Amino acid sequence: MGEPTDFGRPASAILRVLDALPGSARLTLGELATQLLPAWQAELDRLVARAGAMDEVPTCRRGCAACCRHPVPLAIPEAFMLARMAAGLPAAHRERVLDAFEQARSRLDAAGLSGTALLSSVHAYRAASIDCPFLEHEQCAIHEWRPGACREHLALSAPARCAEEGDGADLLGFPLRIGEYFAAMAARLLGGAPVAIALVDMLDWCAGRADGEALRSWTVAELRAHSVRVLGVPAPD
Ligand code: SF4
Question: What phi, psi does 142 have (nearest 5°)?
């Protein structure tokens, strides 16, 4: 997978979602992620089916959490979406999630992992074997809203390879990764370079921006115009 002719269709899938919305409607970055992720899943399903026709069949199955003790990078729109979602959970579930974030952070601190080391020290992070705070009974509690890095971590090798501390699994390649699109959009709209936030750091990172960047919004027409630039493809007919 990944030949240049593949690129246009996934990019068009993003633009089609924006085309279906009123151009004057305003979206925050978190709302952009909320709008796009379900449609992106349909596009991933199409690409996975096509790979399957070429005997590249992912071994990932619901209930397999072999990749849920990895450092998960989020783009800013995904972080804002998940922080808002966590804040809106029923009280008991929210307490459970907040407690899981606390526990994960204290175990990471004990392992000497913090700041940029959370995403750059992949081996040490995996060795610490820390559950993702959204992992409950070996299931993703936010399956519908899991970030692009999780959706696109589709292994062709055995699940045990995902859990290894080394380079791990053979992964299916994709012509476009939604997290990279989100990161590039946030950089264009907020200024600065593309940012990757460790999922376990997400709540702290977003808390300082809850009344600022998280609330900034753009019209769908503006988001579409920026998307065309970020994706580098012409609009579909
Ligand atoms: S968000 Fe869900 S799929 Fe991703 S690492 Fe966490 S539990 Fe696993």
Answer: -125, 35
